[in-house]
Each structure stands twice: as C-alpha cells, then as structure tokens.
Design goal:
77 residues; single chain; four-stranded antiparallel β-sheet; three-stranded antiparallel β-sheet; mainly beta
C-alpha cells in the first residue's frame, strides 16, 4: 500500500506489519500514484508536472522521470 499527498514523500507500507518500509522523495507533493500489476513498480505524478517510476526493490531514486506540460492527475498501468 502507498500513501501520498502535499508532503515531500510517498510512503510505502508493509501491510502485514503496518509499518512504513519506504519513503520516496517527491518534493512538491503527489497528485496520483499507481502500482504495476506485479507490485514491483510504482508510478507517481506530481504538482510539478513530473511522472516518476520507482522500482520498489531498488534504491529510493526513480528509475525514470518525465516532465509533462501540466500537472498529472491520473495514472494507470
């Protein structure tokens, strides 16, 4: 499970233990997020018009970052 908002991080949780396992930096707040079907990737969109793709088994840096012409409000795999 993941949660985000106007704060500077996306929080990823271990739902078996109900604890935060990742704090992914997203400096301007997050407007949307989506997990891949196998839950290995997380896509996040932001107020700063960036789309970030995170590999959840890797370091806390996006594996891909794209800038779009407007705020991203919806994502899907």
């Amino acid at each position: 499970m993941a949660a985000a908002g106007t704060g500077p991080h996306v929080l990823v949780y271990d739902t078996a233990a109900w604890r935060t396992i990742r704090r992914l930096p997203h400096p301007t707040g997050t407007t949307t997020l989506a997990f891949s079907h196998d839950s290995r990737l997380l896509a996040t969109g932001s107020y700063d018009n960036t789309l970030r793709l995170w590999e959840l088994t890797g370091p806390d840096i996006p594996v891909q970052q794209l800038t779009e012409p407007a705020t991203i409000y919806a994502l899907a795999f």
